[in-house]
Write a structure and sequence with these properties.
The radius of gyration is 16 Å and the shape is globular. It has 7 helices and 12 strands. The chain has a single domain, classed as Metallo-beta-lactamase, Chain A (4-Layer Sandwich). A 7-stranded mixed β-sheet has the order 1-2-3-4-5-6-7. A hairpin with a 2-residue loop joins strand 1 and strand 2. By secondary structure, it is α/β, with parallel strands linked by helices.
Length: about 210
């Protein structure tokens, strides 16, 4: 297996690993790295994928310089190797919504996670990334999204990809979103409304 690296926005990279023996046609698992003064990895991948994913991260930034580890919800393909990344990057911290930290990550993570309130922003350097609580979109009640205010990139988990359909021009086909990602975002009070995300690029972690 091989993890491919593609730059999908300025200093934002998709790491893709195709696993042929998952399901009838195989499946691709994606992670995203935002390269900045404080690099952020969104989704770690499964624990068994750590050698491939960490090698790919190391081609973009020194692995030990990783500062933030984030994911959309708590599940093996999202955060299975989080503790291996913590061991490889002594200054890295996991960040997630307050609920996910309280219910799971305070116990699961080898270092205390940083809990975020809905709408809270982390300054990575040039990039400003916003934590958005989206309970049950796509999965558990602690689910969330990351929105890059700088480049208008929305990083989502696999289920959200089925609910928010990106159009060819980078916009969102709201007829297909139903009660999914775009609607969830539109109901927030921190200023992110549908008209603001119509030009956003949606990037999902499973294909």
């Amino acid at each position: 297996m091989h993890t491919a690296v593609d730059e999908i926005a300025p200093d934002t990279f998709r790491l893709s690993t195709y696993i042929p023996d998952v399901g009838p046609t195989g499946m691709t698992f994606n992670q995203f790295l935002i390269r900045d003064e404080q690099p952020m990895l969104f989704h770690t991948g499964h624990r068994q994928l750590f050698p491939l994913v960490s090698e790919a991260v190391g081609t973009l930034v020194p692995l030990e310089d990783l500062r933030w580890i984030a994911f959309g919800h708590i599940e093996a393909d999202e955060c299975g190797s989080m503790n291996q990344f913590l061991a490889a990057a002594p200054g890295a911290q996991i960040t997630h919504g307050a609920l996910g930290c309280m219910v799971s990550l305070n116990d699961m993570a080898d270092r205390p996670p940083v809990p975020l309130e809905d709408g809270q922003v982390i300054e990575l350097g040039r990039h400003r990334v916003r934590h958005i609580d989206t309970p049950h979109v796509p999965h558990g009640w602690e689910a969330r999204l990351i929105f890059d205010d700088t480049d208008h990139s929305l990083l989502v988990g696999e289920g959200a990809r089925r609910r928010a359909v990106a159009c060819g021009n980078g916009g969102v086909d709201h007829r297909a979103t139903g009660s999914g990602t775009a609607r969830a975002l539109s109901e927030k009070r921190h200023g992110l409304r549908l008209y603001q995300i119509q030009s956003a690029q949606f990037y999902a972690t499973m294909e």
